[in-house]
Amino acid sequence: MQLQQLIYFVTVAEQGSINKAAEKLFITQPNLSKAISNLENELKVRVFNRTNKGVALTDGGKKLYQYARTILNQMELIQGLSQKERPRILSVAAYPIITMGRLAAEFHNAHRQDNIEIKLVEQRLQNVMESVEGGHAEIGFVMVNNAQLKEFRHTVNYKNLEFHLLGKDTWYLNVGPHSPFYDRKEVYMEELLDATFVRLPDDYFSNLTHYLEIGGIHLGKIRRKLYVSDSAAILALLRQTDVIRFGPALSAPDFAEYGIRSIPVRNSGVEISVGWLQRKRELLTPEAEEFVGLLKGLFPSPGAADPEPHPL
């Protein structure tokens, strides 16, 4: 097997089309199709299903993509050793949380004079895992509640990822000055059922959250919901309306700077595992290592962080 074969395979997988991949690679479609067929014959594994809309990875193809993408990422790092002017990259996929913006700002300020591209993408848990698996992000920041943890563990192993636990957290109620709960020291779940909750669009993992109970009340009983796609919209709605949301304690200091209070919820019982993801057996770039250091600072107390891959 040659490195060029892996480049062809990865390009087809990411383009979802042999024709589009051939254009990007500046080769003919028949030659690219032949190269993919030769790869399948050599591996004795079918890597693509051909359809009228293009191609889709088979289960075997998905596994090959994980390994091939890792190899190509490492090759890019090796080639970069002799390209001093090549931009360094920090690529992070993160659950939408206001704190990530602060960490990105800290990283930028520390490297203001350096040629570093910062790519921070906000995504739901499922998409964060897919971004890291597919090589679109080097590391992923995730928060997993106790209703999601079992399925999360299974998916991490299936996608050949490593999860590093930073610490444990729980949910607080985030409210702005227009909320009737703004001056409260504590709230009860039953008081919140008629309020409007602002939240991110659901994915598979967030649907599992509906099975959680707070104070004996299922979250599925929440009727009024307002969906937005990023943390900036959440911040604006909290500051300017009476909507509320559940959020981790770790974001409380960042919200406080904008006049958003984080209020304890009585008998919450929700445990959140906070941590970061990377692909297995892959060395991190210095930029990613430094950003992981910032993530570890979110839980500075002794014993809160686990520097080794968390056993799943």
Walk me through this protein's architecture.
- With 312 residues, the protein is α/β, with parallel strands linked by helices.
- It has 3 domains: 3-80, Arc Repressor Mutant, subunit A, CATH 1.10.10; 88-165 and 274-296, 3-Layer(aba) Sandwich (D-Maltodextrin-Binding Protein, domain 2); 171-264, D-Maltodextrin-Binding Protein, domain 2 (3-Layer(aba) Sandwich), CATH 3.40.190.
- The protein contains 11 helices and 14 strands.
- The chain has helices at residues 3-15, 18-25, 29-43, 59-80, 98-110, 125-133, 149-158, 204-208, 231-240, 252-256, 286-296, and strands at residues 48-51, 54-57, 88-94, 116-122, 139-145, 161-169, 171-175, 196-199, 213-214, 217-218, 224-227, 244-248, 261-264, 272-279.
- The radius of gyration is 22 Å and the shape is elongated.
- It starts with a helix and ends in a 16-residue tail after the last helix.
- Residues 302-312 have low confidence and may be disordered.
